[in-house]
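It is worth pausing here to work through a concrete case rather than discussing structure prediction in the abstract. The textbook approach is simple: state the sequence, then state the predicted structure, then interpret. We follow exactly that order.
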Amino acid sequence: MKKYQVSLAKAVLGTFGWLTGILVLANGGNEILRLLLLSITCSIIIGFIFSVGYPIIWKEFTTNQAVKIGLSSIMNIGGGCLVIGLLFPAMFTMIFAWIPAMLLLSIVLHTICSFFYQEAN
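Step two, the predicted structure:
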């Protein structure tokens, strides 16, 4: 876990910067503390997925490719839905019915990307 600390910090800080900027521009200066807390929470979720979750699944797990693809897809869609639910609850209710289709698309895209990743290595 120690080797992923720097990567996690970079991802969290980078996401926090642009997400805070977008939230302040979209909502003005109103409720700045709430926006900062939302931005921090979402940054931690996104940073964990990309800098800790994916490397652990693809480099540390010794399972077969199908399990890695399934775990990556579930983590990706779950984290994305969690962030959307925190930032825009009304949007989450609109996309909730589409979660199975998004999961299927994520599995297909992760499968395609894993084949290209294997060819590159």
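Step three, interpretation. The two ends are 24 Å apart (CA to CA). The chain has two domains: 1-60, 64-121.
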